[in-house]
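Bit of a strange request maybe. I'm writing a small parser for structure token strings and I need a real example to test against, not something I typed by hand. Could someone generate the tokens for this chain?
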Amino acid sequence: MKLLLKSLALLLAAVVFFVVAGVVATWAPDKPVDELKARWARAPSQFVPVQGLQVHLRDEGPRDDPEPIVLLHGTSASLHTWEGWARDLSRTRRVIRFDLPGFALTGPHPKDDYSIDAYVRFVAGVMDALGVQRFVLGGNSLGGQIAWATAHAHPQRVTRLVLVDAAGYPFEPSSVPIGFRLARIPALAPVLQRTLPRGVVEGSVRNVYGDPSKVTPELVDLYYDMTLREGNRRALGLRMAQRWAVQPERIAQLKLPTLVLWGGQDRLIPPDSAQRFAKDIAGARLVVWNELGHVPQEEDPARTVAEVRRFLGI
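Reply from user aminoacidic:
Good idea to test on real output. This should exercise your parser:
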């Protein structure tokens, strides 16, 4: 009996040791936004006050554009996901992109409201702050859902719509990034808000690429730092806990020129949703790249932006 108790004590001590060692090895407290600005908010970044937030924003291209192109990123991403598109499109068009509440350098919503309606109000608020009345609106994943919901709520303001692997219909993912899966477990929140294995971030980014070899160390640095921004991990957990009403009937009510872009290797929001968007929005044009994943604008900006230029006639 004594030998058994001694063995159990040694086993428990070993478990405690490895748990503590794991926590120490992955310890990653929140980073203040000012600490992140030097690397990730270089010119032409600016911070604009909107609805109690300091919104990280980039506004590029000719100011006389009557209908600027506005781009919305997805969950746990940032305005940087549109870098390739912005570089190309801003040569002839005004391009506006910003970090959504709960993510990247903009950070948490002051009222912890991550509903789609709150995001729609936020997009309209940013446009009001910039004095932009009418605009082309594009979005990826969560940003795509916000984009079509904004077009539905403000049909007089949104003139064209670009949906990139957008959310909106019920779907069954074949694979979910590990970071999202962990964020959906409330019991892990106290630990996850203080630790962050770099491998979790890298694995999550690789999961949404059709070709994971395109994921560079610098790209992992970006996603890692944006996750560490003060308050973002807590915000992600809250957003994952909020249940959104799925209202696909609103999609069929949209009456504006729409381009639907999709990665055929998207395992998070399968291409079935692409077919539904193309069917339900009258006149929508659909383009699918069989080898790209959930963030085609980031994975292959040159090929994907070419379709946007064609759609906009530029």
